[in-house]
Amino acid sequence: MEPEQLEHTEEAVLTKVIVFQLNEEEFAIDVRRIQSIEKVKSITRIPGSAAAIVGVMNLRGIITPVIEVRTLFQIQGREMDEHTRILVLVREEYEAGLIVDGANDVMDIDLNRMEAPPESSGHRKNEYVDGVIMVDGRLITVLDLDKLITPLIK
């Protein structure tokens, strides 16, 4: 008699993320880190700031630095359009806005299905990646916001 085979299944560890686009690529950030998603407003340039910081905006009375994610990831720039959004992030240490091509998906992802980021392929964005996950045939890159934002704001 063969021993009974027990199927081991890991329980899903779901987290809600906001999915945003840069070109045809999709990226995700934990929804708990996002205060709001805004249309592009007037951005005031600040001389001498890091290349990725395009300036600041007045968001409900709070001056907020605005970061061009394309510059951080060394992706060719493009004109902002009606789909361009600013993801407003708020933490105790900082508040910042991220300019992205579009942000319109909120979904649950299973952290147990997330895979380690691929070995560096020469893209700077790999520095900011927590992992990648396939959801409904879509490859989504999950970002580590602390690695992305902290060096720019401090």
From TrEMBL:
Pfam families: CheW. GO terms for biological process: chemotaxis; signal transduction. One of its GO terms (cellular component) is cytosol. InterPro entries: CheW, CheW-like_dom_sf, CheW-lke_dom. Gene3D superfamilies: CheA-289, Domain 4, SH3 Domains. Residues 14-154 form the CheW-like domain. SMART domains: CheW (SM00260). PROSITE patterns: CHEW (PS50851). PANTHER family: CHEMOTAXIS PROTEIN CHEW (PTHR22617:SF23), CHEMOTAXIS SENSOR HISTIDINE KINASE-RELATED (PTHR22617). This is Purine-binding chemotaxis protein CheW. It comes from Sinobaca qinghaiensis.
